[in-house]
Amino acid sequence: MENMPRAVMPIVLVLSVILMIPSGAWAQEEGAFWQAIRENLTVTLRSQHDGYIQASGRDPERVRNEGLLRLKYVQTFRDIVTLLAIPTVRFDDANLFQGVIDEVPDRSERANILDLEEYYLEVVSQRFDVRVGKQIYNWGKADGINPSNHLSTVDLTDLVEDRDIGIFSTRINLFLTQDVILETVWSPFFTPIRLAPRGTRFSFIPAASTVRVNPRELPRTSLANSQYALRLLAFWGPVDMSLIWYDGINDAPVSRREADGSLTPVYNKIRVLGANIAFNTGKIGWRAEVGYQLTDGRRADHFVQYVIGVDRTFADVLSDHDLYVLLQYVGLEITAVAGGSIR
Asked: pTM for this structure?
């Protein structure tokens, strides 16, 4: 029962917006109503079949089937208030999805069958905008590895599919000039990376391992464990560049060895100063990203990670199909070994 207030937060947010609709809107003709639905609703249906072969085992052939239904609804009121909701239904035959309630924060070890990927209420003005709800942030410029982006977390239960996990947060954008934006984000809840369950295809624990892994030791919800982030975003002609500061908890765990030899996943406090840049020269795109991470906790280091990339799209390579080529170089330099731990 203690989690009930968090579980109903998405419902309260949606209902609060519904109550803002003028009473005359409920009396509109049926045809106009369905026209509004068609204009604001996007429906995605997808069926996915995965087949793979294991290097060892009695049953070397494996298959997995997954179905997806995603509804994306966006409604704007008088060009000032915007409501977005993306309910999703996923199911498969490998038991990677379970549960039907989207809680805040999303800490379930398996993705929900019925989920809300994102939902938020946004109010905009000429000088600033405010957005509250479950949001996905993509502050990085590189592909796959983003040392400057630590807000949103990811679902690694299926490495074939890139799936982000939104965080419940408040975002405020301040438009300093026409080309400079200061973005501030605060999230009171910690949302960890979702790792593949032990024994599944993409589990990081070898199938033959006999090491006992204890339940995760999640940081308690408190003001000290909140996430704070600032991004100064600037546009200079074709150049898009950002300076980022993040203060929060690393969503990827480290292992603490216990006296009995078992391992306990724990999460460290981090602070990250990052920067990124992206621009095009003709048909070639350039991108670079760097992050300097300071870590509190055992078995964790201070380090600088960077990514440099170049990409190009070759048009009509095969009939009317294009070819996209991306090359990236990733580097990491450890600067110091961290000490202490988060509790």
From this structure: 0.82
